[in-house]
Amino acid sequence: MKTLFVANLAPETTEDDIRELFSEYGTVRGLRMSRDIFSGRCRGHALIDMEGHEARAAIDGLNGKSYKGNSLRVSEERKWAKGKKGRRH
Length: 89
Fold this sequence. Notes:
This protein is 21% helix and 33% strand. The protein is an alpha+beta fold.
């Protein structure tokens, strides 16, 4: 299972829009879209869970594609490295 990070989504984008867009490349196993707390509109990014080969196909097919007037950025989610916290010396 791979998690994709999708950025530069238009504010009027819905979860159904994202499912429909990504279902062309495979089954969307999970979807988390951040929304504005007051308006309920999309804040511009989402996380999508798909199988590995389907996720790679979605990245190849959708990264840079124009959708609702915005150029999508689709990539594999990056995990933050765990390390020391605090100031650097």
